[in-house]
Design brief:
Largest sheet: 6 strands, mixed
Distance between the termini: 28 Å
CATH superfamily of the largest domain: P-loop containing nucleotide triphosphate hydrolases
Bound molecules: adenosine-5'-triphosphate
Keywords: Amino-acid transport, ATP-binding, Nucleotide-binding, Transport
CATH topology of the largest domain: Rossmann fold
Order of helices and strands: HEEEHEEHEHHHHEHEHEEHHH
Protein name: Amino acid/amide ABC transporter ATP-binding protein 2, HAAT family
Radius of gyration: 19 Å
InterPro entries: AAA+_ATPase, ABC_transporter-like_ATP-bd, ABC_transporter-like_CS, BCAA_Transport_ATP-bd_LivF, P-loop_NTPase
Strand order of the largest sheet: 6-7-8-3-9-10
GO molecular function, one term: ATP binding
Number of domains: 2
Organism: Paracoccus solventivorans
CATH architecture of the largest domain: 3-Layer(aba) Sandwich
Length: about 270
């Protein structure tokens, strides 16, 4: 059963360690599998190592003086551990980094054009844009406005749209819900789920908003202090009492006794 699941992984990350500046061990033997066509969440609090995990996969560590010091990453069966970031993009890995990076002085339509891979024909680009506008009707309405004046939610939709133009087979999103109202998070996550269902796009989602993430993924990993401390189906994670208490806001309140209890119980996780 385990072997079968691994055989169907689009991403297989095994015992990865990442060092920043040759001294700071940010992740300590993280293993994550993303099934082909699956949606998986990486959950955890600030500084746990979620973004570092995504950067190790997309090859963006070098820009931050980080490197993989141990372990192996396979994408669709190919070892990409040492591969240049650009080559990983060409293979179908797309990483939407935290903070909705779009060209603010360009329109959404121009942003999508700028994100298209070299060599994509005008007709193919037009097909891709139509598809993106179908998924994100709000973006279609604003396609000729200046992107800098779009709302936070619309900018996040545009950042995802820019990723989709590259026609990835693995889409990695870093905190797409950050700073957005709950109804917008629900709208964007609903669209992501639709794209996953209709296009078979594999998604690896980094989120602090565990409640929203566990509604759309099929499985999740909880990362604490650079280590995976829990892995399971979304249903299993949602019903886990520690996850409920620490990440889903189902706790008993924050009086002094509970905070001490919280720290004690959380230690086993790390
Ligand atoms: N460029 C860097 N140089 C040195 N240390 C870094 C760098 N980036 C991250 N770190 C450290 O690595 C650890 C993991 O950080 P990371 O950003 O991966 O966590 P995270 O779970 O994504 O949290 P957040 O949501 O706050 O970004 C933290 O201790 C952080 O301070």
């Amino acid at each position: 059963m385990q072997e079968k699941a691994q055989g169907q992984s689009i991403l297989s990350m095994n015992s990865i360690e990442v060092l920043y500046d040759n001294v700071m061990l940010a992740i300590k033997g993280v293993s994550v599998q993303v099934p082909k066509g699956g949606m998986v969440a990486l959950l955890g609090s600030n500084g746990a190592g979620k973004s570092t995990t995504l950067k190790a996969i997309s090859g963006l560590l070098k820009a931050e003086r980080g490197h993989i010091s141990r372990g192996e990453i396979k994408f669709d069966g190919t070892d990409i551990t040492e591969m240049l970031a650009q080559k990983r993009v060409e293979m179908g890995i797309c990483h939407v980094i935290e903070g909705r990076r779009v060209f603010e002085h360009l329109t959404p339509d121009e942003n999508l054009t700028a994100a298209a891979p070299m060599g994509m024909s005008r007709s193919e680009l037009s097909v891709q844009k139509d598809k993106i506008y179908d998924y994100f009707p709000r973006l279609a309405e604003r396609r000729n406005s200046q992107a800098g004046y779009l709302s936070g939610g619309e900018q996040q939709m545009l950042a995802i749209g820019r990723a989709l133009v590259t026609q990835p087979s693995l889409l990695m999103l870093d905190e797409p819900s950050l700073g957005l109202a709950p109804f917008l998070v629900a709208e964007i996550f609903g669209i992501l789920q639709k794209i996953n269902r209709e296009e078979g796009l594999s998604v690896l989602l980094v989120e602090q908003n565990a409640l929203a993430a566990l509604e759309i993924v099929s499985e999740g990993y909880l990362i604490e202090n650079g280590r995976v401390v829990m892995h399971g189906t979304a249903e299993a994670l949602k019903s886990n009492s520690d996850i409920q208490e620490f990440y889903l806001g189902g706790g008993e309140g924050t009086n002094f006794h509970n905070v001490k209890h919280y720290s004690r119980r959380k230690r086993w996780l790390s």
